[in-house]
Automatic annotation (TrEMBL):
This is Uncharacterized protein. InterPro entries: DUF6789 (IPR046739). The chain crosses the membrane at residues 37-58, 79-101, 121-140, 147-169. Pfam families: DUF6789. The keyword Transmembrane applies. It comes from the Archaea.
């Protein structure tokens, strides 16, 4: 300050940014748990919708439900119930549909085309289908028509999964305690 300056300007010592009070970790943890439950519910609904399509494909001879036994074999869980390897494999499939894929969807949904989660789920289902159609095509006999039916019905099933998963996210993410 100059000798004759009587102004006291304390503005430079005030914080430059006025922020909100930081939320406690519990609030974030509760939001994360809530979002995880929303993902699990969405995955359950989506897997149920996809399973209906796969059951239709199986009844038409375009999908072999024994393919789920491969999942049990890959994870080593077929040892627990060797007589029901298909059921154990389906439970592994359900676990992936309820945990892994909903978490990936929540992480990538901002980059998918569409306004709402339900419409974003359609391209997401397509991406998942590209791996599924190759991994589960074993045991498809009957020629090119059966293979085409397999491809179409599993694609529709994956669209149903993605749309249902996204629709549950849309429905439940409007709740005030979510981070999605």
């Amino acid at each position: 300050m100059a000798d004759g300056d009587t102004q006291t300007n304390t503005e430079e010592f005030e914080p430059a940014v006025e922020g909100e009070i930081a939320e406690s970790d519990f609030d974030h943890l509760a939001g994360i748990v809530t979002d995880g439950l929303i993902g699990a519910v969405g995955g359950l609904v989506g897997t149920a919708a996809m399973s209906i399509g796969l059951f239709v494909a199986s009844s038409l001879g375009a999908f072999d439900m024994a393919s789920f036994g491969i999942l049990a074999d890959l994870t080593g869980l077929d040892v627990l119930f060797p007589a029901n390897a298909v059921a154990v494999g389906f439970l592994v499939f359900l676990g992936g549909g309820m945990l892994t894929w909903p978490l990936l969807f929540a992480a990538t949904a901002a980059y998918l085309p569409g306004e709402r989660f339900a419409t974003k789920g359609l391209p997401y289902g397509f991406v998942l289908w590209t791996g599924f159609v190759l991994a589960f095509s074993q045991g498809i006999d009957g020629g090119i028509l059966t293979l085409a039916l397999y491809a179409v019905l599993t694609l529709v099933s994956h669209f149903a999964y993605g749309f249902s998963l996204g629709a549950v996210f849309d429905y439940l993410s409007d709740r005030p305690d979510t981070l999605v």
